[in-house]
Amino acid sequence: MRTAALLVGVLLAGTTGCAVAPSIQVVVEGTGTTDRLTYTFPGEEERTLRNPDLPFERVGKRKGRVVVRLEGVHGELTCKIIVNGRQVRSSTSKTGVALTCDHSMAV
User: Fold this and answer.
1) Sign (positive/negative) of CA torsion 89, 86, 67, 29?
2) pTM
3) At residue 3, what are phi and psi to the nearest 5 degrees?
């Protein structure tokens, strides 16, 4: 009987909208380079990397706004934001043009 009660509790929890943390992946790749890459994940401090190694990849797990900004781009770079395996944003920049890639999720 305990097993049945536990199973019913698990099923009810699954159907009442218990939130599952999203898997958020940021990728910057391409044939170019950037002088500065600034990124922010929900609940984290903004971070800036100078002359970062590319490709660049970071993963987060909280809902909110994700922002990536590239400045001093040389060549072509693409920024992608992937949530739960689905690409939700993609932006490509060429030499001399700053690039911003952002996506917001309801909290």
Assistant:
1) negative
2) 0.78
3) -60, -45
